[in-house]
């Protein structure tokens, strides 16, 4: 199957999952995780209508941003961990950052965002499974991080992101997501700009959409198996 065929299938899956829980497919945006994929694959996805692309590695993200700069309506999302010495490159090129979990990084991104660009859209990453190997804040620390991000002039807080521990049972997946969903809804009540809950990948798409996801991150189902270089 082609990348265009794969995209259509993923979009059908999203629509089916949304319908099953009484939501509209238009409420869930698809982020194509394009890390390690060649430019030709991104161009194929773009030609098929995809506009949101997610990258994990700074140098690769910047190279793709530059190579595809003629496609001005691409929305670039950085979804990987951020080293402080790479923050400027992210601030200068990306439209969204999903992985805010430290004050130092948030401040640097705001300070380094070029003034001619709109504020950088950011999500606070929450470690909902308590995994020491994963980044993210504890939900108990969310209020303070929200206040920090809102105080920074060149960042725009749009919501929350999480990567839970792998779990195959849908009921357990939803159980893990429940506190995050509630935190997101509370955040939304207090801030009309908050509109994005970035949860859900191929393995937990249905549970994430049933738990209020507004953005799902899908890579392999669109582009095929990951390529390592």
Automatic annotation (TrEMBL):
This is Pyridoxal phosphate homeostasis protein. CDD domains: PLPDE_III_Yggs_like (cd06824). Belongs to the pyridoxal phosphate-binding protein YggS/PROSC family. The modification N6-(pyridoxal phosphate)lysine is found at residue 35. The keyword Chloroplast does not apply. Pfam families: Ala_racemase_N. Pyridoxal 5'-phosphate (PLP)-binding protein, which is involved in PLP homeostasis. The keyword Coiled coil does not apply. It comes from Marinomonas communis. Transmembrane segments: none annotated. Its cofactor is pyridoxal 5'-phosphate.
């Amino acid at each position: 199957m082609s990348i265009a065929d794969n995209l259509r299938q993923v979009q059908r899956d999203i629509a089916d999952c949304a319908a099953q829980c009484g939501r509209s497919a238009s409420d869930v945006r698809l982020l194509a995780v394009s890390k390690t994929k060649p430019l030709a694959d991104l161009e194929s996805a773009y030609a098929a209508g995809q506009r949101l692309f997610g990258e994990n590695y700074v140098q690769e993200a910047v190279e793709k941003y530059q190579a595809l700069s003629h496609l001005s309506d691409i929305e670039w999302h950085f979804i990987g961990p951020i080293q402080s010495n790479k923050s400027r490159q992210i601030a200068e090129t990306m439209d969204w950052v999903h992985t805010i979990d430290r004050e130092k990084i948030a401040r640097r991104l705001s300070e380094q965002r070029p003034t001619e660009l709109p504020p950088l859209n950011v999500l606070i990453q929450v470690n909902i499974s308590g995994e020491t190997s994963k980044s993210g804040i504890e939900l108990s620390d969310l209020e303070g991080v929200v206040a920090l991000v809102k105080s920074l002039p060149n960042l725009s807080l749009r919501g929350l992101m999480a990567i839970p521990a792998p779990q195959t049972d849908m009921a357990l997946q939803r159980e893990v997501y429940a506190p995050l969903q509630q935190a997101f809804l509370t955040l939304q009540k207090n801030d009309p700009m908050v509109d994005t809950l970035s949860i859900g990948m191929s393995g937990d798409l249905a549970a994430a959409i049933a738990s209020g996801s507004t953005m799902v991150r899908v890579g392999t189902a669109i582009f095929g198996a990951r390529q390592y270089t």
